[in-house]
Design goal:
The complex is a heterotrimer of chains A (296), B (435) and C (271).
Chain A: H1 2-16, H2 21-42, H3 59-66, H4 69-100, H5 105-115, H6 122-133, H7 139-146, H8 163-188, H9 192-200, H10 205-216, H11 218-233, H12 237-243, H13 254-263, H14 267-295
Chain B: H1 9-25, E1 55-61, H2 67-80, E2 84-90, H3 93-104, E3 112-115, H4 119-126, E4 151-152, E5 155-156, E6 159-164, E7 169-171, H5 172-177, H6 187-199, E8 203-206, H7 212-215, H8 217-224, H9 232-238, H10 246-258, H11 271-279, E9 283-286, H12 293-298, E10 305-307, E11 322-332, H13 339-350, H14 352-362, E12 365-366, H15 376-381, E13 389-391, H16 400-414, H17 419-433
Parallel strand pairs in B: 1-2, 1-3, 8-9, 11-13
Antiparallel strand pairs in B: 3-11, 4-5, 6-11, 6-12, 7-9, 7-10
Helix pairs in contact in B: 10-16, 16-17
Chain C: H1 2-28, H2 33-38, H3 50-57, H4 61-92, H5 96-106, H6 117-126, H7 133-156, H8 161-169, H9 174-185, H10 187-203, H11 206-211, H12 220-225, H13 235-255, H14 257-264
Helix pairs in contact in C: 3-13, 4-5, 4-7, 4-10, 7-10, 10-14
Classes of the chains: A mainly alpha (296), B alpha/beta (435), C mainly alpha (271).
Organism (chain B): Streptomyces asoensis
Keywords (chain B): Signal
Protein name (chain B): Extracellular solute-binding protein
């Protein structure tokens, strides 16, 4: 009996191996293989259209690491953007989730509203916000003028020191609602009794948040932080829409830098940049996981 | 939108391990194998000008706003050659700048295609996509002195169709009100003009500092007389000149002097916004170029136009009165399957009558000889066709990163940065990118 | 009780921040550019559908709409089929193999698309798949697979082992277990994933931008980009395009909201 069963289950296991074949075939052939090819391109000076090229070894990488202010500037902008978005979006998403965790008609409606921007396309959002930030006839400055706060008007994306932070504002507007939903699910999983018990012990609102909510919502925080990091690090369409193509130094990010290098027909160099870009995302994700686990 | 990742540590480790394996296991053909062109030899086949024009020609270009006019011309073309057809394939200019070569290689699109002057044109030449036009009848329709940007090493690869003046557009009503009927002949005179405009309540110079593509147009006229040679930006790229040289520092200092005369928060202004400001008659000058005349009219402007360039030197020291550019370089694809038809359409566009339809319909001057400009604005600006103008310096740049660095120095100065510091920062980038 | 007053203020500000820009866009579609710049906040004076008409006629949004539908439908269906098979394997395969395949497929979530675009372009071009709707379906399927496998994997792992054991005793092979147990139970998850993929594919710009060359194969986001004339963005036209391109997604969202939420939180609650 048991032997026939194990034979059958072996057969079943073998048949099971066919299941992931289509997915793996598509994925490896159309994605993993080209990604790996990038490694090979990165060791050349190919311009993308000539039939000849030279192997230059690691020269592209040494140039990136030691003598490319433009790339470094893009990396710095990217880091500023990601840190700002992660902090602001996580805090805002949690705040909104705390306010809307109870399922009443009003909060269901508001949750739906805050989530809405997420389903729009980046191109649409970029065009909308280009108009919002337009310093001359745009929504923000017109609004400020309308309420008599003329002195608050700003140049927004036109100030190289703060442009990245305005980009961050747009990114948060775009996706905070999405992360709020993750938090709502996390909060709803916390048993009510815990709060009731704490209240009986005379704990205040802040105490319950610190000792019950924050620790118990940690898994959701982990997801929100990891996801927001990758999402904001990969921002691309949004920057092209807001900052033009190619964007100026104030809004240049790693993704747009790779694309611009590619447009400059420096394929080999662009491939090297894209690999560094990938490595940075991996590193950032790993550092975060460690930090979050240590905190937990 | 995708879903968040929640992998435990071991899964994450395996994940990176697997990805690493995948990377190591992949072997691939050299980059050259993927040029996309069946054979991109550097010496393209001669152009097939004979043969009946038949089949559908894909015409790749970046002028979405010319679509309707070109569609009318296509109708007329098809009446002439009933077996041929033309389809427009339009990409926005920024995308066209970066992807055109890959789109047209192997002629999957763009049997007839356009190119920007400078970097893009040269790349397409190097990639062997042009079927040379030297000696064809089509070339004879053009003014020989204007089609240089479509030639290289004595071979005419393409024909620049549009003639534009990349210099400030003027609202002559406003200039009259400010008491200026003639263009200033030196820098102080120019500043005086701006000051008088300001006194009359105008924004003297509307400048789209927030739009990289157009913020740099003003640089053309700002350097045309300051630069020691006509190919100064080429020399910046080669390292012979530096942006820290006196002539460029002077230019940057002059930018700083313009600040009080620009609209407030100019470094963030989009082209749309300044065009709107100018179209409403609230600005004296619009620091972009003649290519915007049609757009400004479309916004309902009724006042007459002229062009007016700042003369940045003392009177009598100036070599040039303005700048021009010829671009929208038409070329036939060497790999095209419908070459006779593509060439026929190129020749058709160069016919003075058809070029006139294009010019008057789109508000652009053209490089074709004997065109009758009936459009009021084109007529008003026509005297510039014979003035002393320089081929726009800005388009000498072949490297986009270097161009961005130089133009951004001007924006930074307007934003309050010290000229010397802005120049130094730009030079650092140039030195790195020149390698 | 400071909290009592802060909450409504925060929520009101947040709601305004979401609604106002979108309202300006909607109103803007009924205005001319000068009207829009002069008073962006005011409701339209004389509602005219001119901008929509021009957006459809001049911008060729009709054909683009059809292309978007074809590509999106094809990619979503194909992705659901291959991803559910793969996710079933990941959930059912004993030992490390299941996790390894899952890891490989989900790794794609962290890889920026820019890393592969150059070689990807070359590959698709050599296969003759650039400038074709089939090529877009394939590339969209590939790029959304990680997401689909991730969500479906999370759902499939929640199916109790006992259900499968009962079927195995009846001598069911994996295909029958998949068909008669996994699929019926994951129907809501499939709907959720499908909607997710719909939004991703519908809004994708990068691949059409890279691959599509001719007018006839253009998708909506790409057609939207064409609204930027070379030197002058026609905001009202652009806004009309934004409304047309966003309408289907917003309608689907309003009707099927709960699926969006459950897809997003598939992995969130399990500690």
């Amino acid at each position: 009996m048991s032997s026939t069963r194990s034979a059958r289950s072996r057969r079943a296991t073998r048949a099971l191996w066919l299941f992931p074949v289509p997915a793996l075939a598509l994925y490896l052939f159309f994605f993993a293989y080209p990604t790996a090819q990038a490694v090979q391109y990165a060791l050349t000076d190919w311009d993308g259209y000539s039939t000849t090229y030279d192997n230059v070894g690691l020269r592209n990488f040494t140039e990136l690491a030691t003598g490319d202010d433009v790339f470094r500037n893009a990396a710095e902008n990217n880091l500023k953007l990601t840190v700002t978005v992660v902090l602001a979006q996580t805090a805002l998403a949690l705040l909104l989730a705390l306010y809307l965790v109870r399922t009443t008609r009003a909060s269901t409606l508001l949750r739906a509203l805050f989530f809405l921007p997420t389903v729009l396309s980046s191109v649409s959002v970029a065009f909308v916000w280009r108009f919002v930030y337009d310093p001359d006839g745009g929504l923000l400055n017109s609004g400020l003028r309308a309420v008599g706060l003329d002195s608050w008007q700003s140049v927004y994306l036109g100030n190289p020191d703060t442009a990245v932070f305005w980009l961050a504002v747009t990114q948060v507007w775009f996706h905070a609602g999405q992360m709020m939903v993750v938090y709502v699910a996390g909060l709803q999983a916390i048993p009510r009794e815990l709060y009731e018990a704490a209240e009986l012990d005379g704990a205040g609102r802040w105490d319950s948040f610190r000792h019950i909510t924050w620790p118990l919502v940690a898994p959701a925080t982990g997801i929100v932080v990891a996801y927001t990091t990758v999402q904001s690090f990969k921002a691309f369409d949004l920057v092209l829409g807001l900052g033009g193509n190619p964007p100026g130094p104030a809004l240049d990010l790693l993704s747009t830098r790779v694309y611009t290098t590619f447009s400059n027909n420096e394929f080999g160099y662009a491939a090297a940049q894209s690999l560094v870009f990938m490595a940075l995302i991996a590193l950032l994700t790993w550092v975060q996981r460690r930090a979050l686990r240590r905190a937990a | 939108m995708s879903s968040p990742r929640s992998l435990d540590r071991r899964a994450a480790l395996r994940l990176f391990g697997a990805a690493g394996l995948g990377l190591a296991a992949a072997a691939c053909a050299g980059p050259g194998g993927g040029s996309g062109a069946t054979s991109s030899s550097a010496s393209p086949a001669a152009l097939a000008t004979s043969g009946t024009p038949e089949g559908t020609v894909s015409f790749a270009h970046w002028r979405a706003e010319d679509k309707a006019v070109i569609a009318d011309l296509i109708k007329a073309f098809v009446r002439k050659y009933p077996d041929a057809g033309v389809e427009q394939d339009i990409a926005p200019s920024a995308d066209y700048q970066s992807t055109a070569l890959r789109r047209i290689q192997g002629s999957k699109t763009g049997d007839l295609f356009t190119a920007f002057r400078g970097a893009q044109f040269q790349q397409i030449v190097r990639a062997g996509v042009y079927a040379p036009l030297t000696g064809t009848a089509a070339v004879d329709n053009y003014r020989a002195n204007l089609i240089g940007p479509g030639a290289q090493a004595g071979v005419q690869y393409g024909l620049p169709y549009q003639l534009v003046f990349n210099m400030p557009l003027a609202n002559t009503d406003a200039l009259d009100k400010a008491g200026h009927t003639a263009a200033p002949t030196d820098w102080d005179g120019f500043l005086q003009l701006l000051d008088d405009l300001k006194t009359k309540g105008y924004t003297p110079l509307a400048w789209p500092g927030g739009d990289a593509a157009n913020a740099g147009q003003l640089l053309n006229t700002m350097v045309m007389n300051n630069a020691p040679t006509d190919d100064a930006f080429t020399k910046i790229e080669s390292g012979a000149y530096k942006v820290t040289d006196d002539w460029f520092l002077t230019t940057l200092e002059q930018y700083a002097q313009l600040v009080p005369y620009l609209q407030t928060r100019a470094t963030g202004s989009t082209t749309d916004a300044v065009t709107q400001l100018f179209a409403q008659g609230r600005a004296g000058l619009l620091a972009t170029g003649s290519f915007q005349m049609a757009g400004v009219r479309a916004l309902g402007a009724k006042f007459p136009f002229d062009l007016l360039a700042p003369i940045t030197t003392a009177a009598g020291k100036a070599k040039y009165e303005g700048v021009f550019n010829t671009t929208f370089i038409l070329g036939v694809n060497s790999a095209s399957k419908v070459q006779p038809a593509a060439y026929a359409f190129l020749e058709f566009l160069g016919d003075p009558a058809n070029a006139g339809v294009y010019a008057n319909g789109t508000g652009q001057h053209v490089t074709v000889q004997g065109v009758d400009y009936t459009n009021t604005d084109l007529k008003a600006v026509a005297p510039w066709l014979t003035k002393k103008t320089l081929l726009a310096p800005r388009f000498q740049f072949l490297n986009l990163d270097i161009r961005t660095a130089v133009e951004n120095a001007t924006v930074a100065v307007v934003g309050g940065k010290k000229p010397a510091q802005a120049a130094e920062e730009a030079q650092r980038v140039i030195d790195q990118k020149r390698a | 009780m400071l909290h009592k007053t802060i909450r409504p203020v925060v929520l009101l500000l947040g709601a305004a921040a979401v609604v106002l820009p979108l309202l300006v866009v909607l109103f803007g579609t009924f205005k001319t550019l000068p009207q829009l710049f002069d008073s962006p906040l005011s409701p339209p004076g004389s509602p005219t559908l001119d901008n929509y008409r021009r957006a459809v006629d001049e911008g060729g949004l009709g054909a683009a709409f059809t292309n978007s539908l074809v590509v999106t439908a094809g990619a979503v269906l194909l992705t659901l089929v291959v991803a559910s098979l793969a996710a079933f394997f990941c959930a059912r395969m004993p030992g490390r193999a299941g996790w390894a395949v899952f890891g490989v497929l989900v790794a794609g979530l962290a890889v920026p698309a820019q890393a592969a675009i150059v070689p990807q372009y070359v590959l698709f071009d050599r296969l003759g798949l650039t400038d074709s709707l089939l090529g877009l379906v394939l590339v969209d399927t590939t790029m959304t697979l990680p997401t689909a496998v991730f969500i479906l994997g999370a759902f499939l792992r929640t199916i109790p082992e006992e259900l499968y054991e009962a079927a195995e005793l009846d001598g069911a092979g994996p295909l029958r277990a998949f068909r008669s147990i996994a699929l019926p139970l994951t129907r809501p998850a499939l709907a959720t994933t499908g909607i997710f993929l719909f939004v991703m594919d519908w809004n994708d710009l990068l691949y059409p931008l890279l691959f599509v060359r001719s007018q006839e194969h253009r998708t909506l986001p790409l057609a939207l980009l064409d609204f930027q004339g070379e030197f002058l963005t026609q905001y009202p036209l652009l806004f009309a395009g934004v409304v047309i391109a966003s309408a289907p997604v917003v309608v689907v969202y309003v009707l099927l909201q709960r699926h969006f939420v459950s897809g997003l939180t598939a992995g969130a609650v399990r500690g």
